[in-house]
Amino acid sequence: MKESRFNLAYCNEEYYVVLNTKTSHLIRFPVNQKEIISEILQQKSTLCDLEIHRVLAEKGFIVEDSTNELDEIYRECYELVNSKVLYLTVMPTYTCNLACIYCFQHHIPGAIINDNTMKNIIYAVEKNIGKYSALYVEWFGGEPLIARRQVIYMNQKFKEICNRVRIPYAARITTNGYYLDRKTFEQLFKNNCFIYYISVDGGKDLHNRQRPCRNGEGSYDVIMANLKQIKQEVSSRNFRIEIRVNCSKRSYDYLEQFLKEFEVNFGNDSRFSVIIETVNDWSERTVQMNNEGQLMDHSDLSELGKIAKRYNINLASIDKHLLKTQICQAAKRNGYSIFYDGTIHKCQMALESEKYCQMDKIGKVTDDGEFQIEKENEKIWVSDIFPKSCENCKVLPMCLGKKCVFQKEIQGQPCIDIENKFLNAFMLYDSSKIDMIPLYTIGEKYE
C-alpha cells in the first residue's frame, strides 16, 4: 500500500483532520495523534491497528501500490468536458438596478433581451435538445430579474421542452434579490428553478453602502422583506436560497451582527444558508480597496467560520462547494453563455476584458434555431485534458485544472499557493460543521 497523492491535512485546537480530494472523504483524529496518523499514512509506522488501516484504505487515503490515480483523473476530465448535459448561462440583461462598489461588470443601460432573441433561444433548445441527456440553465446578468417577464417565460418553455423529450431540467438564478418577491419566486420555482444565489453584505448599514440602488436609496430592506416572505409563505422544502456575504476588512466587524440577525430570521430553516466569500480584486473598482489594504486573504476565512459557528449558522455544504469536482462551464464542450443580444460567449471575466473580449465570443444563436459556433474560437477554451503542470497538485481532483480556464489557460497565470487557499476555504465551512466529520482514535472509533 502507499499514501494517496491527493491527501491534505490540517490541525485545529482539538483535531487532526485528513481529507482526500479524489474520494471526497474526510476523517478526524485527536490532535495529539497527528504524528502517528501521519506515519501510518506514509506507511512508515510499525503500529498495527487493523481498524484504522481498513478505514484509510476504504476511504482512499491509502491505495494499492499498483494504483495509478492520475489515469482515473484523466478519464474523469474527459468525461466532464464532453458531458452530454447542455449547460446554458442565459444573460437576459446587461444592466442592473444596483450600483455595487466592487462590481466587475461594465453595464449597458437598457441592455435587455428582446422578444426575437428570446424566441431564437427557445427554438434552438427545442430543435437541439435531442442531442443531450439533460438541460441545466443558470440565469445571470446584470440583474436578470429586471427582465423577469422574459426569464419566467423562458424558464417555463425550457421545462416544457424537456418534459416532452423526458430529460431532466433544472435551473438556478444569481440575483440581487430586489425583484424576487414571492410571486416571482413561485413562478420560477414551479418550473424547476431550485437554487437562488443572493448577495447580502452583512447588515443594513454596510449593505446599503456597498450595494445601493442606482438612485442612491438602500436596497437592504426590500431584499430582506422578500426573503422573509418566501420563508414564511412558501411551504415547499425543495429549494435552496444561498446568501453570499462578500467580506472585506472594512466589513469584518459587521459580520457578527449580520450572522446574529440571520440566525433570528432564518436560522431554523435549512432552506437558507450562508456563503462567506472575500471581495476579489477583479476590476478597477477594487483597486482602491486593494491599495488601502481592505481586501481580505483566504487565510482570514477560518476565523469568519468560527463566528458563524457561535451562532449555529448553516454555512453552505462543504461537500457541495468544496469536496465536489467543479470545472468552469467555459471548459465544457456543451457549455455556453448566451448574451442578451443572442451572441454566445464562454467567460464573464473575459467578456469584461478589452484584451480578451473578442476571443470570448464564440458564436451566436441564429434565427433558424441553431447554436452557431466558431470552432476555432471554441478550441481556445475547450480541451479534453488538463495542463501537465497540474499533475502534482493535491487539489487537482477538485478542478481538473479547469476551475478558471480564463486565468489558467487563456491568461497563462499560475495557481499560487492553491493548496493552502483550498484548506483555508475548507476550514471556513469545516469550522461550523466539524462535528459532522467521523472521529477516530487509535484502537477505538467514535461517530
Description:
Helix 4 (115-128) runs parallel beside helix 5 and helix 11 (301-310) runs parallel beside helix 18 (418-433). This protein has 18 helices and 17 strands. It is an alpha/beta fold and 447 residues long. The protein has a ten-stranded mixed β-sheet. It has a three-stranded antiparallel β-sheet with strand order 2-3-4, with no helix packed on it. Helices cover 37% and strands 18% of the residues. The chain has two domains: 2-67 and 418-446, no CATH class; 85-321, TIM Barrel, CATH 3.20.20.70. The protein is globular and about 70 Å long.
Record keyword descriptors for this entry.
TIM Barrel, 3-stranded antiparallel β-sheet, 10-stranded mixed β-sheet, alpha/beta, 447 residues, 2 domains
Quick gist of this model?
InterPro entries: Aldolase_TIM, rSAM, rSAM_sf, Sulphatase_maturase_rSAM. With 447 residues, this protein is of the alpha/beta class. The chain is built from 18 helices and 17 strands.
Sheet with most strands? 10 strands, mixed
CATH architecture of the largest domain: Alpha-Beta Barrel
> Rg, please?
23 Å
Whole-number total of structural domains: 2
- What is the mean predicted local confidence, pLDDT? 88
**First-last Cα distance:** 26 Å
Broad CATH class of the largest domain: Alpha Beta
The CATH homologous superfamily of the largest domain is termed Aldolase class I
Query: What is the third-level CATH name, the topology of the largest domain?
Result: TIM Barrel
Overall 3D geometry?
globular
- Low-pLDDT regions: 317-322
